[in-house]
Amino acid sequence: MSAFVVGLDVGGTSMKGGAVTREGVVLHTERRPTPRADGPDAVVAAIQAFILDLSHIPPAGTELAGVGLCVPGLVTPDAALFSANIGWRDVPASAFAPEGVPVRLGHDVRTGGLAEAVIGAGRGVADFLFLPIGTGIAGACVLNGSPYAGATGWGGEIGHTPVYPDGEPCACGQRGCLETYASAASVARRYASRTGRTAPTEEIAIRAATGDDPAATEVWTDAVQALSLSLATYTLLLD
Ligand SMILES: [Zn+2]
């Protein structure tokens, strides 16, 4: 009997799921909203339902071998320990899937780094930093082909390295964090605070590039400088 796995990436806004054969053939992909506003129990229930639906996608005669589930926050392979974003604490992996189906949990960004190492831009490269910049900023430090989680699971949280001492306050409690200046959400927020108008981050970047919007130039320059400082520190630390 051929086997397939269900993969699910749970973000603060949406969940991206798919059914994939053992050979890596993607049978189906789907996106659903994350019901974060309804509380952590509702998110767990939505994940369960999503996994159940995806497990019925492949044709009869194929067997669900297991589930790979990426979640934000502090996570071990066997439990989602904590996520400020979703609000859960200590949810065992087994709570997410139908009974008897093996589930392995992974940190969302580190799993992204692992995917780049195995099938993406990091193939054939032993050490690299995977740094997605979105609503927030977190990195996966891939060493010898494996994402490095650190002693307590926070390895790679480069978004909260302070780059401007005494800078703007960050949600983490520190000041001047990289994420406070260089994430897409922060660029948009800082631009809005200067101009009183909201604009998508890509529009702010274009305005900065054309040079005819001083607020866009200031915000974008701060973001690039913050990112440069963090990456310079990171590079010297590792190599
Ligand atoms: Zn921070």
From TrEMBL:
<keyword id="KW-0418">Kinase</keyword>
<protein>
    <submittedName>
        <fullName>Sugar kinase</fullName>
    </submittedName>
</protein>
<dbReference type="InterPro" id="IPR043129">
    <property type="entry name" value="ATPase_NBD"/>
</dbReference>
<dbReference type="Pfam" id="PF00480">
    <property type="entry name" value="ROK"/>
</dbReference>
<keyword id="KW-0808">Transferase</keyword>
<comment type="similarity">
    <text>Belongs to the ROK (NagC/XylR) family.</text>
</comment>
<dbReference type="InterPro" id="IPR000600">
    <property type="entry name" value="ROK"/>
</dbReference>
<dbReference type="GO" id="GO:0016301">
    <property type="term" value="F:kinase activity"/>
</dbReference>
